[in-house]
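Researcher: Next sequence.
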Amino acid sequence: MTINQKIEQEYFDHIVAGEKREIRLAADAVREGDTVILEEWDPHTQEYTGRKIETLVTAVRPQAATNGRTAVERTEERSQLVQFEPKESKYTPAS
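Model: Next structure:
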């Protein structure tokens, strides 16, 4: 499956530089072997920048939010820690 996910500029830059190989996603549908296309998002302009990077999911671990929430709220707010490797693709991040 291919999933498009927006990601803020500061995190996108770390991924492109090879410094970051995992992200947290609220989606339960992500599985090992999926393709995730990360699309850079500028939170100041509230628009996509046009830069993208295609990644291959190598591992998925469920993560429960704990930040002082009740057990019911934690269950409803599950996220996943998704590890990935960049893929060669038609998307070439601009500098």
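Model: The mean pLDDT is 82. Strands lie at 2-8, 22-25, 35-42, 47-63, 79-86.
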